[in-house]
Specification:
By secondary structure, the protein is of the alpha+beta class. About 65% of the residues lie in helices and about 10% in strands. It has a six-stranded antiparallel sheet.
Length: about 350
């Protein structure tokens, strides 16, 4: 089983590797018949694609936070506006009441008729009017304090939103850098003759088959579940319909997907809302032992939970693998398994 690729410090190492690789493209192409050279190219590409997926997952998670925080700031702005409107109405009411009392010798104009016909009732009404004015003043004081608190909360929320947006911009920049590295790597790959590209693909398949055989040799397929729940069947059916569609970073369908975009949409089609990214799916969904998984569960890959696929049974998964590839069926153990989560636990 392949070890997970480390992401820390990748940029310097990858950049050096690619610089050397690109400047010696002709030499590498000439030596392409050497399996070791193909292995190195394969490892470079695998490392770059892995780090691209990590960066994309972080970007998606930050983007989700920005969306939620934007809604929170908008809601707070709405509360501030409503409070300001209430204060304006109460200010106007308090001012009108005070003016009426001044014009009537301390009693509002609305009570003058009652004063003329029933002195006792007039005194009661005057007391009520004064009490109403006091209540209005108390409410004004309370709303003024509320306004101050809301402004404070809104300012704090807006500051957090700006920090999140700055993080998103940084993530986007990091992803663009990785994309540049991948473009260079793909040029290197395309410089190999067609025959050697076939050998490169054969090496990838050989690694995947070897890892799968080792996994199956443990007897795992005799232990795992074979029946999906009703929701699990719907998720699998959705994912199956997407086979052949291209991998695009950040895509959630309907025409393209990234890995967690596919799994989240598959389960949404089954009526279950799950987190958007593979890291969040690993962090928040119910974990189950690998030997207790069943079709419809999600397999999380690599130590950083940077990849996810939908288990469909018989040791196979449906996944959106990486840029340049398409949604397809592949062996479940073709990558290092971190664990399994169950959306409909």
């Amino acid at each position: 089983m392949r070890r997970p690729l480390r992401t820390h410090g990748y940029q310097a190492a990858a950049a050096v590797a690619l610089a050397c690789a690109i400047t010696s493209t002709t030499q590498q192409a000439a030596q392409a018949a050497d399996p070791q050279t193909l292995t190195e190219v394969q490892a470079t590409l695998r490392s770059l694609y892995h780090n691209a997926e990590v960066a994309t997952d972080k970007y998606n998670a930050t983007d989700e936070k920005v969306t939620r925080q934007t809604k929170r700031v908008d809601a707070l702005d709405g509360q501030v506006e409503a409070t300001e409107a209430k204060l304006a109405r109460l200010d106007s009411l308090a001012g009108a009441t005070a003016a009426a009392q001044y014009r009537g010798g301390g009693v509002p104009a609305e009570l003058e008729f009652a004063l003329a016909s029933d002195p006792g009732r007039a005194l009661d009404n005057a007391g009520l009017a004064l009490q109403a004015q006091q209540n209005t003043q108390n409410l004004l004081t309370e709303l003024t304090a509320t306004r101050k608190e809301l402004h404070s909360r809104t300012d704090a929320a807006a500051a957090l939103l700006e920090r999140l947006r700055a993080n998103r911009r940084a993530m986007a920049k990091e992803r663009r850098t990785i994309e540049q590295h991948i473009t260079a790597a793909k040029k290197l790959e395309s410089s190999l003759a067609a025959k050697e590209r076939q050998r490169l693909a054969a090496l990838e398949k050989k690694d995947a088959d070897k890892a799968q055989a080792k996994w199956e040799s443990t007897g795992i397929l005799k232990k795992v579940g074979t029946g999906a729940t009703a929701a699990g069947k719907k998720a699998i059916a959705y994912a199956t319909r997407q086979i052949g569609k291209p991998y695009i970073w950040g895509a959630e369908g309907p025409n393209s997907f990234d890995c967690s975009g596919l799994t989240s949409q598959a389960w949404l089609a089954a009526g279950v809302t799950i987190p958007r990214t593979s890291e969040e799916q690993w962090a928040h969904l119910t974990r189950v032992p690998v030997d207790a998984m069943r079709p419809g569960d999600l397999i999380i890959y690599f130590s950083d939970a940077s990849h996810v696929a939908l288990y469909i049974g018989n040791g196979n998964i449906i996944s959106a693998p990486r840029p340049g590839r398409y949604v397809y069926v592949s062996p479940a153990a073709s990558m290092q398994i971190l664990g399994v989560v169950r959306p409909d636990a």
